[in-house]
Amino acid sequence: MRITQPVLGRRALGALAAASVAGAARAQGVSGKVTVVTSFSNDVTGPFKRAFEAAHPGTTLDIQNRNTTAGVRFVQETRSNNAVDLFWASAPDAFEVLKRAGLLEVYKPQAEGIPERIGPYSINDPEGYVTGFAASGYGIMWNERYMRANRLPEPKEWSDLAKPAYHDHVIITAPSRSGTTHLTIETILQGEGWEKGWGTIKGFSGNLRQITERSFGVPDAVNSGQVGIGIVIDFFAFSAQGAGFPVKFAYPSVTTVVPANIAIVKNAPNTAGARAFIDFLLSQKGQEILLEPTIRRLPVNPSVYAKAPQGYPNPFTGSIGLPSLVFDVGVSEKRYRVVDALYDQTVGTNLEGLKRAAKAIGDVETRLARRDNAQARALLEEARALISAMPVTAEEAASDEVAGAFSGRSGPGPRQAELEQRWAGFAREKYTAAAAKAAEAAKAAG
Amino acid sequence: MATTPAIEAIEATVAAPPAPRARRWAARPGEALAFGLVALFLLAFLVVPVLTVITVAFQDRATGGFTLAHFGDFLSNDLFMRSFFNSLYVSLMSVAVASLIALPLAYFTTRFEFRGAILVQTLGVLPLIMPPFAGAVAMGLLFGRTGSVNLLLDEYLGINIPFMEGLNGVIFVQSIHYFPFILLNLTASLKNIDRAMEESAQNLGAHGFRLFRRIVLPLAMPGYIAGASLVFIKVFDDLATPLLLNVREMLAPQAYLRITSVGLEDPIGYVISVVLILFSVLSLWISSLALRGKDYATVQRGGGGLVKRRMSRGQAIAAYALIAAILLLVLAPHFGLFLLSIATIWSYSPLPDGYTLAHYTRVFAESSQYITNTLIYAGLAGLIDVIIGTTIAYLVLRTRMVGARWLDYVAMSALAVPGLVLGIGYLRTFFGITLPDGSSLAAFWGIIVLALAIRRLPYALRACMAAMQQISASLEEAAENLGARRLRVVRRIVLPLMAGGLAAGFVTSFATAAVELSATLMLVQSSDDAPLAYGLYVFMQSPAGRGAGAALGIIAVVIVGLSTWLSHLVAEHGGGRKSA
Prior knowledge:
The structure holds 2 protein chains of 2 kinds. By secondary structure, chain A is α/β, with parallel strands linked by helices. Helix content of chain A is 50%, strand content 15%. Chain A has helices at 4-29, 42-55, 68-77, 92-100, 144-149, 179-192, 194-205, 217-223, 234-243, 271-282, 284-289, 329-334, 336-348, 351-370, 374-388, 394-398, 400-407, 416-445, and strands at 32-38, 59-65, 86-89, 104-105, 117-118, 121-122, 131-143, 170-173, 208-212, 229-233, 247-250, 257-265, 298-299. Chain A is globular. In chain A, 54% of the residues are buried. Chain B has helices spanning 5-12, 29-54, 69-75, 78-111, 117-123, 134-143, 148-156, 166-192, 195-203, 208-219, 221-237, 240-244, 251-259, 267-291, 313-341, 358-366, 368-398, 404-413, 419-430, 445-469, 473-481, 486-513, 518-523, 532-539, 546-579. Chain B is globular, with a radius of gyration of 24 Å. In chain B, 55% of the residues are buried. At the A-B interface, helix 2, strand 2, helix 3, helix 4 and helix 5 of A face helix 3, helix 6, helix 13, helix 19 and helix 24 of B.
């Protein structure tokens, strides 16, 4: 004891000194310019900027708005002489790309009371590179005037959107264009299984009017009434309501609640400032800003919901999200690009064919509702099976041969473009066959 | 202007001995210098940055070596081939429709005593200034399936016209958007036609449409071809409109979608970019064939263009009605944008629910720096473009320098380079270069100006080319024979005679640079240095910012419109002086 005591003491002293140095550095270092590359709009960044600068006098938060692609590219291309402190965006895949490229720095925030997981997802990157600061759920948004004028009932579930009544009234972003849409697709696939999941996805995809290339295109179209129903992330709908648009939103029972993230860029010029901003985001005060009408995201700190207005969705009470689902990150990562490409090829480029088949099936369905016919029903089932069919199984999608073609890794096997050509051809054939089956069913129905 | 390298290069030709000009294969030292400077400029700010990005198209993934396998994939893919033919069809049809819009506007305003000709020509430029996103929303609100027009049609007639759907929708929007290229260049050309030609034809008995078809239009061909080839290439390479209408089966959107997917290094996107570039150069070559072997130059310029006629009352009413109808159609998007900028909420109804000026208040309070930046950037870019455009036109048309034609092709290929590719290329090439104050060259706002200048150079270049094609070299030779040295000839003869074309070139470059976004978004490094299009982008990302974005768009339109009007005035003034 006598021998070890001083050692311990010294160690404790050292730790104390280190802590105080760190503390001093923190108090001192939080000044100057903190540069943030973000895809969030002024409506989101403005309140945080004002509050953060008020909380840390002498600091300025320099916001650089870029869309996610441009933001990722910017950080990648400027790595040699990095001038960015923080990367702040929704899309989880953007952070994944930056992390894999070794462009992020680990930081463990100081905040307390923030749970491990939200729904099936863990809030923070397990290795500490990426910090979740808010959550958002996916759901269905609609324009009330549009629905009234077209006499459409309010949808509640994903499966509702596959009904004939909604044909040509739905809009979505391609999963290859939006990390959050990708997660929704992936969650459906993991929740319902590969085959059944694609059936659900193609079911509502047959009713699409458009697949937009930027995620804000979806709420834009619904807000202005160009399209009635959009599959969107919740805050798009809430902030549109806040701005006065006649829109409503519902979480289907199978939904995903995904974290929006922030991360420190490697070799950040102002690391102390970057850390202070993350800590601020996760502090009680920062979390409360998320409740503002123009922002409306779900705080990751459960205690903040006490201050939320009546009816504010709360993923921690199990009212939304899929608490039962365990999301397998490994599976998701392995087939990430494959799932995107499958959607692009079987739905995106073949949307016309898919819609034609879906419309034909819907028409027969409507007639069968009035006068049933067993033979026609059987034919419809066959047609549906043709639509649901996928060119690859879940195992193949995650195989080195297929996934490798999309990862840029060298190796044997077909190139990406060859696979895409094959998949598009497969889907085209199946949809034509499905439309023919539906025509047969129409004849059988009389 | 006198201090820029390109003009210095032209001035340097003064030093050369006045040798007979025609049939000369070797270049004068001054011309060689001009050639070298322009080539260097294009190399540094276009070729190298783009090459650093698109080499992926030729790289074997496994070995990193050279391969053409990706081009094989392109050719054997149904989707890409379909996209290619769709792009071709849409481009050709857009040229046809745009010509139908531009011809009457150009002809009536130059051929007749026409009140407000400058106003018509100014308003005619506005469609080029379709601010990104805001313009798209406005178009949708007016012409979309549930836009004002269709809501009204549906209510009163029970019909719905798909203006904005499918390939025809793309043709509709593209023609409205890009017909000013033809209008501007054709107007400049018509003004340059020697009046004597027309008078001789009339003396020989040609009148009316025959006179126009056989004499006026053929003489104005350089301007028309310049405009039409721009429309063709621009539509072929444009991605904004097809994406706004969600038409993906065209080449440019295919390339864009592949290049901008996060974290995806797919060579096919770059392969398509290479195909776009090659095809743009090819169509340019074809259009130059159309003009080859013909002489469009006329000697006399004193008359200042066609004889201006008075129209009879009936004719006048018909002409004004036609022009009003065309302007109403092509300016509808701007009207929609204006409504959006003063609307409270506009959703699924023919007109907004209410009106407010709050968006303008917000814009002026939050973002006045964008306006100054835009004027500086777009103005400088337009100036650079006109100088380089004139130099290239001079080298191609007045010297027989080997490779001059290639400057033209390389400069024009900028049309086919997606803005994002150029932006990435700039970061890759210039980020490592540090300025004396320690910051990166890529962070300097001048880089944005250069990117804008490169992206809009083709517009000015075609205009300068057309303008110089119409000047007879004999005028310059005459001046030289009278003892004028080269600099004096260029300054006193060539440039004044080209004034109209130069103005047209400046206006197209300036106006379109003012609303450029894709490269800008990559290069802006602080909102203090950001131009208007960036501010617009930032606003348009949230529902509450829609009105403010539209207000900023309207401000852009007004600024560019005023500048256009001013430069027309200057050009007219110059024209007045030279006829005196």
